[in-house]
Design goal:
Structural class of chain B: mainly alpha
Number of helices of chain A: 15
Number of domains of chain A: 2
Structural class of chain A: mainly alpha
Oligomer: heterodimer
Number of helices of chain B: 15
CATH superfamily of the largest domain in chain A: MetI-like
CATH architecture of the largest domain in chain A: Orthogonal Bundle
CATH topology of the largest domain in chain A: MetI-like fold
Order of helices and strands of chain B: HHHHHHHHHHHHHHH
Helix content of chain A: 55-70%
Radius of gyration of chain B: 26 Å
Helix content of chain B: 55-70%
CATH superfamily of the largest domain in chain B: MetI-like
Number of strands of chain B: 0
Strand content of chain B: under 5%
Shape of chain A: flat
Largest sheet of chain B: none
Shape of chain B: globular
Number of strands of chain A: 2
CATH class of the largest domain in chain A: Mainly Alpha
Distance between the termini of chain A: 41 Å
Distance between the termini of chain B: 40 Å
CATH class of the largest domain in chain B: Mainly Alpha
Order of helices and strands of chain A: HHHHHHHHHHHHHHEEH
Number of domains of chain B: 2
CATH architecture of the largest domain in chain B: Orthogonal Bundle
CATH topology of the largest domain in chain B: MetI-like fold
Amino acid sequence: MATTEAARPIALAAPSGRRWRRVVTRSVLPRVVLILGCLVFLAPFYWMVISALKTNAELTQFPPSLIPGAWAWQNFVDAVNYIPFGLYTLNSLTITVGATIGAVLSNTLVAYGFSRIQWPGRNVLFYICVATIFLPYPVILVALFDIFGKLPSFGVQGAQHWVNTFLPLIVPAFFGNPFYIFLMRQFMLGIPRELSDAARVDGASEIRTFWNVILPLTKPAVVVVAILAAVAAWNEFLLPLLYLQENDKYPLAVGLVFFTSEHDVSYNLLMAASTLIVLPVVILFIFAQRFFIEGITVGGVKG
Amino acid sequence: MTASAVARAAPHRRFGLSRLAWREARWAYVFLAPWIIGFLAFTLIPMIATFIFTLTNINLNQAEPLRFVGLDNYARLLGDQQTWESFTVTLKFAAVALPVAVILPFMVALLLSSRYLRFAGAFRVLFFLPYVVPFVAGVLIWLSMLNGDSGWLNLFLQAIGVSNPPNWLQDPNFVYAGLVLVGIWGIGGGVIVYLAGLKGVPTELYDAARIDGAGWWASLRHVTIPMISPVIFYTLILGIVDLLQYFLVPLVLYQGTGEPGGTTNFLNLYIYKSFFNYQDMSYGATLAWFLFGVTLAITLVLFGTARRWVYYAGER
């Protein structure tokens, strides 16, 4: 404390050109660049919200207005009626909840097997698991489509087979995802081995060690996987498009396509619907951003 | 005592494991069961089946009787001009987009990790926020931002004196630049990964470099980049894998027509079209395996070079 106070007057007393250059390169320049970058990132959000509030006439006006002249709140009502918004929301929620539960259950178990138990062949199998990240989806798609077309769905959603039901979007989540397994394994490897050894010496079974010792310590990673899996399922676009064949089974992320036709996009309605979809996720994101960022981070460190 | 214990354990050895190790290994397979079953049912078996498809004439209508055709599909692929054109499109775009995907997040992360920056957390959130925007909405927002006449980017460019800014997404000469701009919204993930890597560089190294007289550039060149080379490698590999499969953005923008002027006929788009538009399963599968082979080859080459430039602090 005393030293900094003593140092400050000296620094202030000698504002040499060099010091100013340092101030500029160290704090001013990075900030200016960052703020510009932020504008690039924020502008589209701003555009989304104001376009959602513009009338059709104002939308085509040139030059485009930065603030809507008349606030067309009616767009939100129209957007919700333009597509079966409630139904699509329900579809999205069903898929998201199912896939998230699956991701949490399966990836914790599998990551435990890959990190807390010593056994021969562990690394080979883990490398195979990670290598599946490199598989282009078309390499499995045709045959997988065939398989889903033959698996009995026992009347789920009135279908006989998995195609055109939510099952292909939910059930695979219960069998692990290489990204989340990798992430959770990294986390579990960081827990000291002595904890498991102590539990074993005390006679705890593997299940008990998992449930009572490791799982409580893994909570942050579980939250991360839950959030990442939920956002991914909520926004998934390609898979519903491939496996669902009836419009009324689509989730919101796909339903947005109906605002665009070949030569025309109802921008204000599309943006009103997008705002409605983005809003809950943004709020969730702001509250949970620490976890989001942790989740992305774990992967990169050990390459 | 030890000898007798070994003698007693010996009859129980299975797969060269002691009894205890075997029991532990068995538990491992219980925990791994979900992934193993899923891998077999949803990955390995479909993958093999798809490969078998490539050796047949299977398609949705099946006008000809189903039969093995050997390597006919692969021969057709080699002679198919559309394959090579779409492959060239994919490679061209990857060449434009990959440097941006690897370098831009690194630069943003460098700025964000500055010790002199306040509100770093808020900035991090901001760069990551587009991740939660639904894909279709994000693409169409950028379609308007990049509109040739009324898009904000061109209005901005005109305001600072660029007289005739390009019509980004409709001009064959600028469409890749336009698609890269659309992709900039997705750098948040990379930024976060780089930030974590930068945080892991021990500060002593920077202190030592400074004592040795290294300036900002020298310490970036000789400390930061080698220390985070694993992260660069990770970003590079995932970037290549993603870019080789790139097609969703143009699919939404141009409905798979390849506009403008065939510049967005990506290889993966051709594959999906073979499946769903032409319903030619066997040829689509062959194209898919071709894409997989290319991905594998490039990845393996990169892993081969990794020994020379990727530095793992734990090793050596």
